Amino acid sequence: VTLGDQTFQRGAGGETHQTASGDIETLTTQVGTPVADDQNSLRGGQRGPTLVEDQHFREKIFHFDHERIPERVVHARGFGAHGYFETYESLADITRADIFQRPDEKTELFVRFSTVAGNKGSADVARDVRGFAVKFYTRQGNWDLVGNNIPVFFIQDAIKFPDLIHAAKAEPDSDFPQAQTAHDNFWDFISLTPESMNMALWIMSDRTIPRSFRFMEGFGVHTFRMINAEGKSSFVKFHWKPKQGLQSVAWNEAVKLNGADPDFHRRDLWTAIKSGDFPEWELGLQVFDEKFADEFEFDVLDPTKIIPEEQVPIRIVGRMVLDRCVDNFFAETEQVAFQTGNIVPGIDFTNDPLLQGRNFSYLDTQLSRLGSTNFNHLPVNAPRCPFHHFQQDGHMAFHNPKGRANYEPNSWGAEGGPRENPETGFASHPEELEGPKGRYRSETFADHYSQARQFYLSQTEVEQGHIGDAFIFELSKVEKLAIRERMVAHLLNVDADLAETVGKGLRLKTMPKAADAARPTVTGLKPSPKL
Ligand code: HEM
What we know:
Blueprint: E1 2-3, E2 6-10, E3 16-19, H1 55-65, E4 78-87, E5 106-115, E6 130-138, E7 141-148, H2 161-168, H3 184-191, H4 197-203, E8 218-219, E9 224-227, E10 233-242, H5 251-260, H6 264-274, E11 280-288, H7 290-295, E12 315-325, H8 329-334, E13 347-348, H9 353-370, H10 450-457, H11 461-475, H12 481-494, H13 496-505
Antiparallel strand pairs: 1-2, 2-3, 4-5, 4-12, 5-6, 6-7, 8-10, 9-10, 9-13, 10-11, 11-12
Helix pairs in contact: 2-3, 3-12, 4-10, 11-13, 12-13
The structure holds protoporphyrin IX containing FE (HEM).
């Protein structure tokens, strides 16, 4: 039978064969051998066993058996798209980063939005922080701005990240809850980690139930540096402002959406782009100098704090347009490897201890997740500018050095491969460092409540109501009373009315005393003498 340009044939057993004809390509094995029959394995007789010599069958099953790779240890569920960044003006005054030199220039990029705590198969509209990771394929290498849709973070030092994530993800014995819905371990950790209070207010706000990825802001969170051609350093905070506006759903909508369509956010982005309604964000910078940093009432290296826009206005410098869906989810969205360490000349790190730890973590985890030191050879990760280095071999290497030399210095002249370039190459900002080695708990990071209060008071009455409701809903799922009380004790340092609303909502018999702001980490536990 021929239907359109497809030909169907009935096999001897009544099965349907679809055969190549016209423009329809011939099915092949991995090495290109044309396949005659993809329905029936090779057997010894009509009712006999399958033969090991059936190479096509073995290759097909072998490959299928190994399709899964580990999901990301965090941000496992995500959705990506291609697009471009367009500069509005030259930023040569503050950075020599090539991407920011010329007005109206376009640079290709890839974005992956994600939830943090849920596994790869979890629901899109869970109450959770959203990842907002952008890979710019610049002419001087890939620059990854690996941010979130919340401008602050839970912890100040990367050494606590495994604990935060263990507490936020499924509990080790029961393996539930899967997403960041309320549970004892999560709130236990938060209530014992006062530095997370600003973030706690943000995550109980409507920001963590966005209407879709298209209606979210994005933030680089940390303070970074920009360095201009004269070597002058400025501090910078990165912001993404959605042209679509900022919108969230209400909690009862989120719960229904998660049941009715767990793919709600990915479907929204896919459909918008496929129908030509390309989402856009503007990139904004808060630029400030050492003098501002010294005078600012918080430490600019503390990732649990924002710099209010009233104090440092945002300079809008360009726009990002997402205009192309992926051709293959696994090859692109799943295998993309963002790294905070991927920066380009003209941009540099600061000593934010969370950022410094992230720089180690991403490279490390991606070896485990992608299985080879050569994951940057994958098309979605490879730079789009020329690149030359002497790294070689390893699993799946297909960009090995060409020619005679794979080392330097060498005396092979022009045939000896690439050489370092002090003029165009990346150079770290020569910041002066001093002081004794030690594990410090910085005094300048110690105020955990003022910005939480500032955030709460900046919300409308309706939004404040949502925050109170969210705390009551989430904490009412916590079984251990002491954890509920500890959270209300923190809220007393944020806003007395909010604390009272939550305390009443949780039907606490007596209100706890406010947490001791001067002694932030109080577990009340002493190590056992047996240890
Ligand atoms: C993944 C953001 C803190 C470790 C991600 C992703 C985002 C992100 C957006 C998903 C990337 C993707 O789509 O592939 C952030 C932000 C942080 C933060 C904004 C704080 C400001 C940390 C810290 C660590 C960490 C402190 C560890 C010390 C990881 C790891 C992954 C990840 C291991 C998985 C990467 C992969 O498998 O490719 N993070 N993160 N993150 N993050 Fe973070």
